[in-house]
Design goal:
The complex is a heterodimer of chains A (58) and B (409). Chain A is α+β, with helices and mostly antiparallel strands and 58 residues long. Chain A has one domain: Alpha-Beta Plaits (2-Layer Sandwich), CATH 3.30.70.20. Chain A contains 2 helices and 4 strands; from the N terminus they run E-H-E-E-H-E. In chain A, the strands form 2 sheets. Chain A has a two-stranded antiparallel sheet. A two-stranded antiparallel sheet of chain A has the order 2-3. In chain A, a hairpin with a 2-residue loop joins strand 2 and strand 3. The radius of gyration of chain A is 10 Å and the shape is globular. Chain B is α/β, with parallel strands linked by helices. Chain B folds into 3 domains: 168 residues, FAD/NAD(P)-binding domain; 104 residues, D-Amino Acid Oxidase, Chain A, domain 2; 62 residues, no CATH class. Chain B contains 11 helices and 19 strands. In chain B, a hairpin with a 2-residue loop joins strand 9 and strand 10. In chain B, helix 1 packs parallel to helix 3, helix 1 runs parallel beside helix 6 and helix 7 runs antiparallel to helix 11. The chains are: A alpha+beta (58), B alpha/beta (409). Chains A and B meet through helix 1, strand 2 and helix 2 of A and strand 13, helix 5 and strand 17 of B.
Chain lengths: 58, 409
């Protein structure tokens, strides 16, 4: 499983950054960077994202 | 960029800039860094600020940014009933927040603060009683040192985490927010804030229209993070059914997480003070945070000044959290109860309440300060025919002592 950010939908608001329990997500300018080594695919970012830009791919 | 500062503030929002002003006023050598490319932009905010905050913080509204005077509010239930309050006197403003924050930034700089945008803190480490911040700007990185970091970096709040203070948001205590600034819209009173409730409309939250003059308004939604659909979905669906809104044009899209579920237990650590959204400083009921952040930033600066004077950055910042709870936090904890009550209500309850309670009662329930007599009237005259509501209200109004608020000793 991998958590991915859809750049077309994303507004770079940082909601996912705040709820990530393992600090795997950072926001750089207009880029969401997910550190797959840290990410535990818990879905917190998927739940909080106001526009549905985060998904977990199986 | 210099190599070291007396204090470094991360985040140039209301909290950070308010702190910068206070520190610079005392002649302290202070740096504000922000990863964004424009102050106040993109906003993650509906931009309302009540008159109480203007008075409390001694801020004079300016024409450039206090764009729409507000004289009251209207709450709507799912079946379209409304509870309204409109006063002759001004009760607050909707701001042009970008201009407001730039105004704060100008004040801070005039007093001697330094602001750097597009500067992102990528690491923060303590070494021999000082903090080393690694800051990235474009393709360069640089290390600067300071004995004191003020983390005013919003809900993301990575800097506190880098320094070992867990500011993580619990998902069940966080709202997902989405908003359009729209123009060419109509059908609402521009002197009121409009709030729409209902489980179908906005589960565990509400939709708002905050007018910004001349047929322009912030139209947004905050909902629980666990809802089936996204905040965008619920807002789009609702706007499509509103005659005055559906043909309007969107001139800005905003989004963000809202830390509505209560405050950090500890808002400071060695060499670190947290203020604003980073400390979850927002009103638990409506999610607004500009005033609270400004006040929090000033309070953070007060404790920073104490630490700088003592030249000691661990014990001297320890009183900050308690000071904040005494000043604002304990009062807001009562409103957290109001939020929990609100979350229990079903559409039928909203419809019933809209037809039976007054705005004054609604506000007092929210603030947790109904008198005994008012409570009796509420229960025996207004809620009595809906046992389900009586149960919910009893559960949340039973204990209004402040024991759950404040700092854990």
């Amino acid at each position: 499983m991998t958590t991915v950010n859809n750049g077309n939908k994303c507004l770079y608001c940082g909601a996912c950054v705040g709820v990530c329990p393992v600090q795997a997500i950072t926001l750089k300018d207009t880029r969401i960077v997910i550190d797959n080594k840290k990410c535990i695919n818990c879905g917190a970012c998927v739940n909080i994202c106001p526009v549905g830009a985060m998904t977990i791919k199986k | 960029m210099k190599e070291s500062y007396e204090a470094i503030i991360v985040g140039a929002g209301p909290a950070g800039l308010a702190a910068a002003i206070e520190l610079a006023k005392e002649g302290k050598d202070v740096l504000v860094v922000d990863r964004k490319q424009e102050i106040g932009c993109p906003k993650r905010c509906a931009e309302g600020l009540g008159l109480g905050w203007f008075n409390r913080l001694n801020i004079k509204p300016k024409k450039e940014w206090a764009v729409q005077p507000i004289h009251g509010a209207a709450l709507y239930s799912p079946d379209g009933k409304s509870v309204q309050m409109k006063r002759k006197e001004n009760m607050g403003y909707v701001l042009e927040r970008k201009m407001f924050e730039k105004d704060l930034a100008m004040q801070a700089v005039k007093l001697g603060a330094k602001i750097l945008l597009k500067h992102q803190v990528v690491s923060a480490k303590r070494a021999n009683g000082i903090v080393e911040l690694t800051i990235e700007m474009n393709d360069e990185t640089k290390t600067v040192t300071t004995p004191l970091v003020l983390a005013c970096d919003g809900v993301d709040s990575l800097v506190s985490k880098m320094l070992g203070l867990n500011t993580k948001l619990e998902l069940q205590e966080t709202d997902s927010g989405y908003q359009y600034e729209m123009t060419g819209v109509s059908g609402y009173d521009e002197n009121l804030l409009h709030l729409y409730f209902g489980v179908e409309v906005a589960p565990r939250g509400y939709i708002w229209i905050f007018p910004k003059r001349d047929g322009t308004a912030n139209v947004g939604i905050g909902i629980g993070a666990y809802e089936k659909e996204t905040a965008k979905f619920y807002l789009d669906r609702w706007i499509a059914e509103q005659d005055g809104l559906k043909d309007g044009s969107i001139i800005e899209v905003n989004a963000g997480a809202i830390p509505v579920g209560g405050f950090l237990d500890e808002m400071q650590a060695d060499n670190l003070i947290v203020a604003g959204d980073a400390g979850h400083m927002v009103d638990p009921i409506h999610g607004g945070g500009i005033g609270i952040a400004l006040e929090g930033g000033r309070l953070a600066a007060k404790h920073a000044l104490k630490a700088i004077k003592a030249n000691e950055y661990c014990d001297s910042v320890k009183g900050y959290t308690k000071d904040w709870f005494d000043t604002r936090g304990n009062e807001l904890m009562k409103r957290l109860k109001g939020r929990h009550l609100l979350e229990q209500l079903k559409d039928g309850d909203f419809n019933y309440l809209a037809g039976s309670i007054t705005m004054d009662e609604a506000l007092k329930i929210g603030n947790g300060n109904l008198t005994k007599a008012e409570k009796t009237i509420l229960f025996t005259k207004k809620l009595i025919t809906r046992p389900g509501l009586v149960k919910i209200f009893l559960r949340f109004m039973k204990d209004e002592t402040r024991k759950e608020g404040g700092v854990k000793e």
